[in-house]
Amino acid sequence: MQPLIEAIEKIKEQDLDYGASYSGIREFDDCLSSIDDMRTALKASLEQQWKTEQDKNQQMSALSHDIKTPLTVVRGNAELLSETELTKEQRTMIDSIVSSTARIQNYVQKLIDITKSADGDWGTPEEVRTNDLLFEIQKQASELAEVYRLKISWNEQWHSQTVTLMYEQVIRAVINIIQNASEHTKDGGSITVHVEETNKTLSFTVEDDGTGFTKEALMHGTEPFFMDDAGRTGEAHYGIGLYFAKTIAEKHGGRIVLTNSETTGGAKVVICFHAAIP
């Protein structure tokens, strides 16, 4: 039995390069041979999975680099326009373009840094004022609503003055969800954002009145590089935003849930962050 026990222990320890040994008893050796075949197949599967993950990281890095150039052009032209004579309304729009492109450039650089890091440098949690966190999210959400010509409703139910979490990443995660909703809601449509604090968990519920998630999107919408050609507006989108939101939620011990709203008939996304709340 010893060679059989050793083979099982090696696989349990994820040592898939061990050399198989045999007992000299045909029945046990047949079992050991089957285990060795399983080891070989498992090793090949894990190597393929690792290669696939590496390919995805390279694609994400390449996509991030490609985005940087047009963003630089947009920001540069907006800054040049800001130096000309503008109306108050035009200056507000230009300032919004400059600040938004600056944030996007920061996000893209962070994405590049993450893909270069084997374990992902997501930052460290910090204590922030709850009001400041929600104010920044609401501010960016309002800017998106103006760009997409949408109405946005904001509801809050919280009581803790401070929360400890990864400030920038949480903002980006929630904004990614709101942007996804904005992209799939027609002009003049509406988005509702509900914030709630319960049991040291800060949750955001985002609902739109678009066409909702397809069945495939409900199953795979948070996977990296998922592209839903058939759903929502019919346009293809790289599945980075919801994937990032899911990752950040899980980093905080939370989760993200995709459903379709029974109220609006559109998409509904709930994201929860388990934060260190006093």
Describe the model.
The protein has 278 residues and is an alpha+beta fold. The chain folds into two domains: 1-121; 126-274, Histidine kinase-like ATPase, C-terminal domain (Heat Shock Protein 90). 54% of the residues lie in helices and 17% in strands. It has helices spanning 2-12, 26-82, 88-116, 130-148, 167-183, 215-220, 241-251, and strands spanning 126-129, 151-157, 162-165, 190-198, 201-208, 255-260, 267-274. Strand 4 and strand 5 form a beta hairpin. Helix 4 packs parallel to helix 5 (167-183) and helix 5 (167-183) runs antiparallel to helix 7. It is elongated, with a radius of gyration of 24 Å. The termini are far apart. Mean pLDDT is 84; it is low at 230-238.
Tally of strands: 7
Query: Could you give the order of the helices and strands?
Result: HHHEHEEHEEHHEE
Tally of individual domains: 2
- Which descriptor suits the 3D outline? elongated
Report the sheet-strand fraction. 15-25%
CATH homologous superfamily title of the largest domain: Histidine kinase-like ATPase, C-terminal domain
> What structural class results from the helix and strand content?
alpha+beta
How much helical structure, as a percent, in the residues? 40-55%
CATH architecture of the largest domain: 2-Layer Sandwich
CATH topology (fold) name of the largest domain: Heat Shock Protein 90
CATH C-level name of the largest domain = Alpha Beta
What are the segments in which pLDDT stays under 50 over at least 5 consecutive residues?
Answer: 230-238
Radius of gyration: 24 Å
Q: Major β-sheet, in short?
A: 5 strands, mixed
Contiguous helical run count: 7
